[in-house]
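Lab notebook page, bench 4
Experiment: in silico fold of construct C2
Operator: M.H.
Input chain length: 161 residues
Purpose: comparison with the prior construct
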Amino acid sequence: MKQKNYPRRLDQCKDFTDIFTLVKRAVKETTGEARSGLMLVLADLPDQVSAFHEVGSNSIVLNNRVLNGIIHSSRTFREVKSYIFTVLLHEYLHSLGHLDELEVKELAGQIVKEIFGENHPATKLSTGALPTRKIGRTRGGEPETPIIIPDLEDTAKSYIQ
């Protein structure tokens, strides 16, 4: 499969909805799999958890503390968007029924490499090749109230595809 301008498309993304739409397109084009009806929640989770999808649920929960750390420590918006893309991709694959962590990590890495090429930050993130920088906590104290990201998907669309 050709890269179909995925690097440019990711650069043009303005929010979580745009990035998630790109994730869904990439999965559909590479594996033929898709699902609807997911929502995104930003919540304060333990630092070692980037995100999770609870089997049987309709949500992906993204660690707001880690995301804020990535935002404040990244050199470019491309790195931030690449991080969000790779995390959402990983959890979206779980939501499609891929439950084994190693299988999902491998599949996500293959998809990212195929659509972005070898040298894109998303590929380097998915393979662990991006140099790690210390990610400082942006705040401490009590966890903040989780935030639901509205309209992650076009909810006017039928859930039956």
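Observations: Residues 6-148 form a domain with the Zincin-like fold (CATH 3.30.2010.10). The helical segments are 6-12, 16-31, 64-73, 77-95, 101-116, 121-127.
Next step: discuss at group meeting.
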